[in-house]
Amino acid sequence: MRKWKLHPLLLTPATLFRITVESPRAPRAREARRMLRVFHAKPLILIGSSLCSFLLCTLGYLKYAPLPKGIIMDPSRILASDGKGLADLVSAGVTRQVVTLADIPLSLQEATVAIEDRQFYAHHGVNLKGITRALLANVGAGHVVQGGSTITQQLAKNLFLTSDRTLSRKMRELLLAMQLEWHYTKSQILSDYLNVIYYGEGATGIGTASLSYFGKPVSHLTLAESAMLAGLPKGPSLYDPLTHPKAAKERQTTVLSAMVHAGFITTAAARAAERQPLTYIRRSAAQTDAPYFVDAATRDLKQQFHLTSDDLYRGGLMIHTPLDVTLAHHVDQIIKAKLRPFPGLQAAVVVMDPQNGDILAYSGGRDYRTSPYDRAQAMRQPGSTFKAMVYAAALDGGKTPATRYKSAPTAFSLSRASGSAYLVHNFADDYAYHNLDMQQAIARSDNVYAVHTAIDTGLLHVIQTARALGLPDDMKPYPSLALGVFPVSTLQMARAYAAFANGGLLVHPHFVSRVTDSQGHVLRRAPDDRLQVLRPSIAAQMTQMLTHVMKPGGTGYRVSNILTEPVAAKTGTTDTDAWMVGYTPRAVCAVWVGYDQMRPLSSLASHVAAPIFANVMEQTILKYPSGGFETTTATGIENVAIDPETGQRATSMCPDRDVLPFRAGTAPTVSCVAHPEKNAPVWERAWNAVRSLFGG
């Protein structure tokens, strides 16, 4: 065979291409490449066709399937202990107002669209550009700074979904938003949105919000008012103009700027609206009784039960409380009657079950309508009611009820270096001018005895005891501590005294017993968090000594005739505050009286707390009779008669005898040397005299 040779100059690219193409192997190579392309294309074609089928099916479903049933909840209801309704947590006593789009000013519609979803009229339920923009902004900031939800998505969430932050919930929101767009016009969607969105202060829907914040129908809203309300849904609590006026004003400015940017209003109109002063109204919640209690229970639901405003105002919850409506009504009537002669004088009353902390009755003032300020949780000086903490600390530190100090004007040294002293006086300069035991000092409310006891016990020990009983931890170790100069609240004092009534247990005040859903399923329950903070024997000693306040010579004796059961109590008075706190085994009652402006109390006004206490306590006793306090045997103490002159064990010859409660092994063993038994031998009298010299 003849062989052909090509000259090197003829080996051009074109020549090489022709040789390659015309090679016998070329057809097989082309076929292999074609098969390879077909092999890779088949999965892509299958995936693409599957996606198209899925999308077509989804769109068909969204178009023709019915929307799920909306789950707009009824307002949550607060119930009294007997199951009757106390209040519905709707805004400002205003039931939910549903309004048509024709009633809603165009300025409010435009403000809402401008700030919430500027592309509302252009998208089909989901704004992919908005979602992408929000995602990039959030990633760049490192936290959530923008939301990508459209008005339609927000409507879908409020109508059909919970507030769970899960991917599955978000996907359902997207699909439901598209389904809404298939079934409703933009006007219908905007109208429904404005009627179901939450505006804060318990207001669901723009109709309710308009009445709640401005006291007018929505159709009468101005541009400035519309811009203020349109800014609330993003953060109802954060931008609440009643509690955060500065933040609310800044939000209103943001809304007006968004309206200008969207072309809805001019810059001049925005500036004029921004300058317009806004007048808000405040209304009480829809309550039949105990408005102060309802406010306190609502705070407790947020702080202790960790429920949000959304949960409370839109959750359809049943909130069960321990409030006794009948007793609460009596409390309100007693306060009004006793304060009637004193214009401007205020009072706070707390009645608590000392065994579990249930709040049975609660009032924070004389008239909620004129002043909803809750004085039951205001901090005021407790005066002599604090002495109970001093004596509890003293008993814990080794003092006994027979410990004696002289009742007379006394100067206590504050500093040896400076020579400064703290001069203590009794109220109205009323002194016994002889030694008192602890029980006598409590009954008389002797200031000198209290300061002596606090210093000898240790001021830090007194503070530690007060903290253990639930009082504030900002007290300082000053001698005046014993006289109640550090502020506490009426609720805190009720809690502290409850420990004396229940054997030394610190209980948590319970405004709410349990929370259930509309079907009765328990969602939250008040915890049983009792803590032993005092020895039961010390609580029993305190109880027995505090009952002497209500006996002849005691500071509470003048109102004791009102009571039909024994009551342990303590009075307290400062220049600006009057108190009385006391209890039976089944109820503890704390009463404060004073002026909001810290005005000095007149002599008559300073005596109002005791009759309020006695009348409230008697109504409580009639409803919750206890039969009196436990015997000393059951509480681990023994009653021993003591001669008040010597502080020694009384003999049959002692002219006066005080029966004091002692823990086992702590009562005096030496018989009274001033009044020995008539037939006692000389050696016994001498021996007792020697023992008394050495404290035996």
Automatic annotation (TrEMBL):
Upper classification of the organism: Bacteria, Bacillati, Bacillota, Bacilli, Bacillales
Name listed for the protein in its UniProt record: Uncharacterized protein
Superkingdom of the source species: Bacteria
Pfam families: Transgly, Transpeptidase
Glycosyl transferase family domain span: 92-259
Biological process per Gene Ontology, one example term: regulation of cell shape
Key words of the record: Carboxypeptidase, Cell membrane, Cell shape, Cell wall biogenesis/degradation, Glycosyltransferase, Hydrolase, Membrane, Multifunctional enzyme, Peptidoglycan synthesis, Protease, Transferase, Transmembrane, Transmembrane helix
GO cellular component: outer membrane-bounded periplasmic space; plasma membrane
Family: In the C-terminal section; belongs to the transpeptidase family. In the N-terminal section; belongs to the glycosyltransferase 51 family.
Organism, scientific name: Ferroacidibacillus organovorans
Transmembrane segments: 43-62
GO function terms (MF aspect): penicillin binding; peptidoglycan glycosyltransferase activity; serine-type D-Ala-D-Ala carboxypeptidase activity
InterPro entries: Beta-lactam/transpept-like, Glyco_trans_51, Glycosyltr_51/Transpeptidase, Lysozyme-like_dom_sf, PBP_transglycosylase, PCN-bd_Tpept
Catalytic function, reaction form: Preferential cleavage: (Ac)2-L-Lys-D-Ala-|-D-Ala. Also transpeptidation of peptidyl-alanyl moieties that are N-acyl substituents of D-alanine; [GlcNAc-(1->4)-Mur2Ac(oyl-L-Ala-gamma-D-Glu-L-Lys-D-Ala-D-Ala)](n)-di-trans,octa-cis-undecaprenyl diphosphate + beta-D-GlcNAc-(1->4)-Mur2Ac(oyl-L-Ala-gamma-D-Glu-L-Lys-D-Ala-D-Ala)-di-trans,octa-cis-undecaprenyl diphosphate = [GlcNAc-(1->4)-Mur2Ac(oyl-L-Ala-gamma-D-Glu-L-Lys-D-Ala-D-Ala)](n+1)-di-trans,octa-cis-undecaprenyl diphosphate + di-trans,octa-cis-undecaprenyl diphosphate + H(+)
Localization per Swiss-Prot or TrEMBL: Cell membrane
Residues covered by the Penicillin-binding protein transpeptidase domain: 348-618
